[in-house]
Here is the input.
Amino acid sequence: MNYVVSNFEKVKKIIGNNVNIIAVSKSFKYDHIKPLVEYGHRHFGENKVQEAQHKWFDIKNELIDLKLHMIGKLQSNKAKQAVDLFDYIHSVDSPKLAALLSKYELTLKKKRKYFIQINLGSEKQKSGILIDELENFFDHCIKVLNLEIIGLMAIPPNDGNEAKYFRILMNLNRSLGLQELSMGMSGDFKEAIKYNATFVRIGSAIFGKRI
Ligand SMILES: *Cc1c(COP(=O)(O)O)cnc(C)c1O
Here is the structure.
């Protein structure tokens, strides 16, 4: 068995069938990813619009059930291309971006699914909505902008307290009545699923070390 597929199977055995695995293929060429697509996996994550477009455009036209997830910082000038290409966008992190996504859904006549990215540790270098601003932002997104917000997403501070952050995110998600929860990466997905993650974003544990 191809080693990417066997890595995927190992991860899948731990995670089970109730959590969606987003195989984060950023930085890898399609040749490296292809065995997993041929194996039948359908959720893939990328963090750059251009790279994703180049890599996936043709494949997505062939495989209509393939789902692409934008998990990286989304610049305003790439918002239109992102709405065109991605089925899910996990990095809705400002009112400005949310307004653009809403506008381009209308222009392109496409509806997408979104996660609001939360800046859990109020870290200056990380983007995301602050917890204090979440309720207003969420209301604005669903009532004014008509975006389908399905859950929250976060990359917790790397300070050994993942469980604490996952719990906070789980509770915020619940308080807004949201169904999906995007958290957990190669290093902490086991912890994330204890706190009801429904989408884990796993790169290196499946594809190996990124160059
Ligand atoms: C790269 C990335 C991942 C995957 O990271 P691994 O540690 O390789 O599993 C998950 N989420 C986001 C937002 C990323 O940028």
